[in-house]
Structures are given as C-alpha cells and as structure tokens.
C-alpha cells in the first residue's frame, strides 16, 4: 500500500521534496531543521499521536546550498527513519499527525508538518 520511493538513482540534489513518508512499520522524516534531536522526534510523536516509536535513530544531517538570485544560503537539513512496533502503529501515527496528506510524484502518501517550540 505505502512504499518508500526516494527518487531511485537520482543524485540527492535531484530528488523530490518529502517530509514524512510512510513505509511499512516505519516513517521517513525528511527536511528536518538543524538542531532537532532523536528525543525531540520521539517526544513529538508521543505528544501529538500518543504513540511511542520503537526506535528513533540519530538524525543524519547534510548541508546544501540554496541559491535565490545572487544570494546563496547554506541549508542544513536532516533525515531519519522512525520505526514503530507494528504497521498499525505506524499507520495510526501517520494519520494522527496534523497536516494534509498528498501524494508525491509516484503516489506515495506524505505530509508536511511544522514544529514549533520543539514539538
């Protein structure tokens, strides 16, 4: 039903934008702002879904350059795959988080959420 698609063999700068994508008993979180920790992510799920993830690995951050006109800006964003105890827990966490569900280019459901004040 829901499968991860990261753009295939495209280089990272050519992949499509995603924020939260569901894959089996896991949720993939992309475009995580710098400074967000494993604990912030775990706390967000507990506070907003009442579901505790079974595993939240360390967020993997990378730096890219965003150019608007003549100005260039370094952007630090992270990615992490959060695991849950079952597919049902992951489904419920995905559905319970606020935000509209919309498909990516290949039809994978995703949501964009905004964190304020650490969760």
UniProtKB/TrEMBL annotation:
Compositional bias ranges of the Basic and acidic residues kind: 1-11
Protein name as it appears in the record: RRM domain-containing protein
Positions of the UniProt region annotated as Disordered: 1-20
Domain of life: Eukaryota
């Amino acid at each position: 039903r829901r499968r991860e698609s990261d753009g295939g063999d495209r280089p990272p700068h050519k992949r499509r934008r995603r924020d939260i994508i569901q894959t089996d008993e896991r949720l993939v979180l992309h475009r995580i702002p710098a400074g967000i920790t494993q604990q912030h992510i775990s706390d967000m799920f507990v506070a907003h879904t009442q579901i505790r993830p079974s595993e939240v690995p360390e967020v993997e951050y990378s730096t890219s350059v965003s150019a608007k006109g003549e100005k260039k800006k370094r952007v630090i964003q992270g990615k992490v795959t959060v695991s849950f105890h079952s597919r049902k827990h992951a489904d419920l966490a995905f559905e319970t988080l606020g935000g509209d569900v919309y498909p990516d280019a290949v039809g994978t459901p995703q949501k964009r959420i905004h964190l304020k004040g650490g969760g």
